[in-house]
Structure formats: structure tokens, C-alpha cells
Amino acid sequence: MSKHEDAAVPLLSARGLTKAYGRTPALRGAGLDLRAGEILAVTGPSGSGKSTLLHCLAGIVRPDEGTVSYAGERLAEQPERRLGELRRTDFGVVFQFGQLIPELTVRDNVALPLLLGGLGRAQAGARAAEWLERFGVRGQEELRPGELSGGQAQRVALARALVTGPRVVFADEPTGALDSLASEQVMTALARAARESGAAVLLVTHDAQTAAYADREVRMADGTVAPLEVTA
Ligand SMILES: Nc1ncnc2c1ncn2[C@@H]1O[C@H](COP(=O)(O)OP(=O)(O)OP(=O)(O)O)[C@@H](O)[C@H]1O
Ligand SMILES: [Mg+2]
């Protein structure tokens, strides 16, 4: 077992992250640890920096200061090309806004990360269909995202995030636009898929019902994460 498969060593860890947009500080020394296979909820008020933190952890935004380490690799030291590769192979991301490509069918939206990774069309389509089935949206492969309900669109976005078999899923408000029944279906599907595949999930949410699916919760306020607490 390598050091990074050891449960005691976090898979992903951030320390002292700062990020400002112009004169607006979004992160002011944020840090956290995500262990392999765990579901960690990041909660906190609007504007507290949750999405910015998620984007830094996923290698989408480079922080001004601080470090993000993934399996021993420091993201700040990696070129753009390597970050892009990590996002395609090891990370799956569900964005807070505008996640599906409207011109593509549901199937092609989910197959896209596989096609970008070089898998053939038939195989990518078949694997996309499997994941759509797991998330309870089989039979809608030929539709465009605009023809789906909010809950169906979220489940398609989750299928796309999980289709490559990532080790970390970043989900930014995956139930943000949903009523409580649809939220429950989305979260049940996400938690089950993560458990089955062993993926860790960083779950950003302001909703207590959604956060309840996590193993652990940390709270953000004003660009920092409250001291790492141990909850059952
Ligand atoms: N691209 C950007 N350009 C300018 N300011 C930004 C940008 N992204 C975030 N901010 C600012 O950074 C701060 C943190 O924003 P962030 O989106 O991380 O908060 P959040 O906790 O995700 O909020 P919400 O719960 O509303 O999604 C806010 O003051 C926001 O206005
Ligand atoms: Mg946000």
C-alpha cells in the first residue's frame, strides 16, 4: 500500500488558500483535508467562498497563495496540461451553474469526458448509458438538456462527473435548484455511486438535508473554513 492509499493520509488537502477577485477577497486562508472515499460537506452562507474553494481544489482556479496537494502532487507546481489531465482522469466536477452543453444530447453530454479521453464512440456511448441508468435517467439519452426537469439535469451532470471513474467528485450545490423529493433522489444516487466506486466527494451545499448525506461537515465563513472538526 502506498502512502497515499493509507486512510490516515488525506487524498486531497489544502492549506492557507487565499484568492481575491479584484479587491474582493473570496478566500482568506482556507484549508481542509479530504480522505479517500469520504463524503465531506462544505456548508456556509452565500458568498463565504465555497465555490471558489471547490474550484481551487479541483485545479480549475489557481489560488493566490497556499497549497493544494492531491495524492502527494502539489497542484501549484503543475502545468496547465497536467491539471487538465487530472480533471479528465481523477476528478469529476458538477458545477453550480450551467453545466450541461445544450447542443449535445444527454448521452453525448455524459460520454464527452470519455471521448475527450480517447475512448471510441460506441464504448463511450454504452458507458454513458450505464451511468444514466444508475442515476435513473435511462430512456432520455436522445433528449437535449433543455427538455429535462431540473432534477433530471442534475442527475445527468452527476453521471457525467462519475463516468470516468474519478477518485474525487466535486459537487457544487448538486441539489441547489431542487425540491426536497428530487434532492433526496439525487443525493441517494450520488452517495450510492460514490460508495460503490470508492470515490471521495466534496459536497458544497447550503442545505442541511443534503449535508446529512455526508460523513463529515466543515463550515465556511468569510473565506475561511472553521477549525477542522471531527463529527461522526
Ligand atoms: N469570478 C468572480 N469574479 C468576481 N468575484 C467573484 C468571482 N467568484 C466569486 N467572487 C466573489 O468571491 C466571494 C466568494 O464567492 P463564492 O462564489 O466562492 O461564494 P459561495 O460560498 O460559493 O456562494 P454561494 O453560496 O452564493 O454560491 C463573493 O464575494 C463573490 O462575489
Ligand atoms: Mg457557490
Describe this structure in words.
The protein has about 230 residues and is of the alpha/beta class. It has a single domain, classed as Rossmann fold. The chain has helices at about 50-55, 80-90, 105-115, 120-135, 150-160, 180-195, 210, and strands spanning about 10-20, 25-35, 40-45, 65-70, 75, 90-95, 170, 200-205, 215-220, 225. Helix 3 (about 105-115) packs parallel to helix 5 (about 150-160) and helix 4 (about 120-135) packs across helix 5 (about 150-160). It binds adenosine-5'-triphosphate and magnesium ion.
Helix-strand string: EEEHEEHEHHHEHEHEE
CATH fold category name: Rossmann fold
How would you sum up the major sheet? 6 strands, mixed
What is the average of the pLDDT values?
90
Q: Would you report the number of β strands?
A: 10
Low-confidence stretches: none
Bound molecules: adenosine-5'-triphosphate, magnesium ion
Number of domains: 1
The oligomeric status of these chains comes to: single chain
Q: How would you describe the shape?
A: globular
- Percent in helix: 25-40%
What would you say the CATH architecture is?
3-Layer(aba) Sandwich
Radius of gyration: 17 Å
Strand order of the largest sheet: 6-7-8-3-9-10
Q: Report the span from N to C terminus.
A: 26 Å
Q: Tally the helices.
A: 7
Approximately how much beta-strand content do the residues carry? 15-25%
Q: Structural class of the secondary elements?
A: alpha/beta
Which CATH C-level class is it?
Alpha Beta
CATH superfamily: P-loop containing nucleotide triphosphate hydrolases
